[in-house]
Amino acid sequence: MRFMSFGAPTSDAAGWVCYSTETPGLFAFARLVLDSRGQFVVRDLVVSAEDRMSATGLQSVKVGQIEREVNAWPEPLREALTKAPTTRDGFVESFRVGMVRKGESLSTKIEQGSRPKLTRPGKDDPDGFYKLVARAHREAAAQTARPAPVLAEEAGVPVATVRRWIAEARRRGHLPPGRASSTQA
């Protein structure tokens, strides 16, 4: 691991370190805070890849190693980390705002949007239904890698039914072609 930058004590970036992992093109940004024992621990972590992020690459982000290395830094660098703001930075909070809380289903979160609830198609406007399926799919896909089960829960239908609806929305041109993957949407 090679640390690439460090925010100066007077900078808003203080408390964050940026480092490259063992995986080429994979970088991580970690915000460290002091714990009750006076040791730095990772509080927030943002990972960025120049290309596709893989599970193997993600495993090269070793939180314990980051903490050990930072805690071994000379005192002036360690002290600079303590000058970080006491509240979380705005961009980290923006990630957290849309998160689903314990006990709240993702479909409930999605239903709170402005679109009508997804139900079985009617015979009067099939194209309108598949446009709604496409919109619902985009909203759910923005919040989960597996949107079909969420939409099935919302509509009260089997996941296979939702997958057929999504395929038809794609066929009608309301959604782009699906990505090939080992798991279905």
In short:
This protein has 185 residues and is an alpha+beta fold. The chain has helices at residues 55-59, 63-71, 75-81, 90-97, 106-111, 126-141, 147-155, 159-171, and strands at 2-6, 16-20, 26-34, 40-49.
Task: Tag the structure with descriptive keywords.
single chain; 185 residues; alpha+beta; four-stranded antiparallel beta sheet; 8 helices; 16% strand; disordered N terminus
Oligomer: single chain
The biggest sheet amounts to: 4 strands, antiparallel
Task: Please tell me how large the radius of gyration is.
Answer: 22 Å
Ranges where pLDDT stays below 50 over 5 or more residues in a row are 1-14, 97-103
Helix and strand layout, with pairings?
Layout: E1 2-6, E2 16-20, E3 26-34, E4 40-49, H1 55-59, H2 63-71, H3 75-81, H4 90-97, H5 106-111, H6 126-141, H7 147-155, H8 159-171
Antiparallel strand pairs: 1-2, 2-3, 3-4
Q: How would you explain this protein's 3D organization?
A:
- Helix 6 packs across helix 7, helix 6 packs across helix 8 and helix 7 packs across helix 8 (159-171).
- The model is unreliable at 1-14 and 97-103 (pLDDT under 50).
- The longest helix is centred in the last third of the chain and has 16 residues, at 126-141.
- The protein is 39% helix and 16% strand.
- With 185 residues, it is of the alpha+beta class.
- The chain is built from eight helices and four strands; from the N terminus they run E-E-E-E-H-H-H-H-H-H-H-H.
- The relative contact order is 0.10.
- It has helices at residues 55-59, 63-71, 75-81, 90-97, 106-111, 126-141, 147-155, 159-171, and strands at 2-6, 16-20, 26-34, 40-49.
- It has a four-stranded antiparallel β-sheet with strand order 1-2-3-4, with helices on one face.
- A hairpin with a 5-residue loop joins strand 3 (26-34) and strand 4 (40-49).
